[in-house]
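Write out structure tokens for 7-carboxy-7-deazaguanine synthase.
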Amino acid sequence: MSLTLATDDTGGPEIFASLQGEGASIGRPVAFVRLSRCNLACTWCDTAYTWHFEGDNRPHRDGVTFDRKANQVVLDEADVAKRIAALGQNRLVITGGEPMLQAAALAKMLDHLPDIEVEIETNGTVKPPARLDVRVDQFNVSPKLAHSGNSATQALIPDMLDFWADDPRAFLKFVIAEPADLAEAMGLVDRHRHPKDRVYLMPEGTSGDVLSTRMRWLAPLAIRHGVRLTDRQHIHLFGDTRGT
């Protein structure tokens, strides 16, 4: 079994050590592995190189498509595990793309890393199979609102939103571009009874200036709605770059 990974700027697999930049574990030293392929297509996606390949006509605001061969690398799951272990971190963040599309191979990879803690970044549309689920310490679930460009039937599946609400390991992270996005986000929180101490608002943006501006008007909204606020720390530290 093998995994399809995104590539870094050298063309190698995007496996690296850094600080978690978002959500409940922000600031924590972790290893990252970024997988390729996604079942959604967010117009503002900052990792479009994981899915917006040549021939894909789904819209993206940058209007850029990527060569699939240059931006994907396929590795045996034992090889991926060895590279992760070499980073010397005790916690792993699996991101994408959409990691759940490769759940079976991920579970097999984690068999080679029995002692590592695991976070998975997911859009929340695919249920983790039992063999993977048992290894996960934290799910960072980012339901995609209307401004992402995805249809609600694809991105906001009621049964899955109920599923995450019932899992104490799941933290919701809503990407917010405009104050008007709050009504949709909080409507989902109320409808599916998500505990507000597991709900984060995060500004959309790929530059420090944009993030700081949006954080200023997001902060009072988070206070008003009784939910948490998260920055995108890695953007301030490293910019919008691969492998960070």
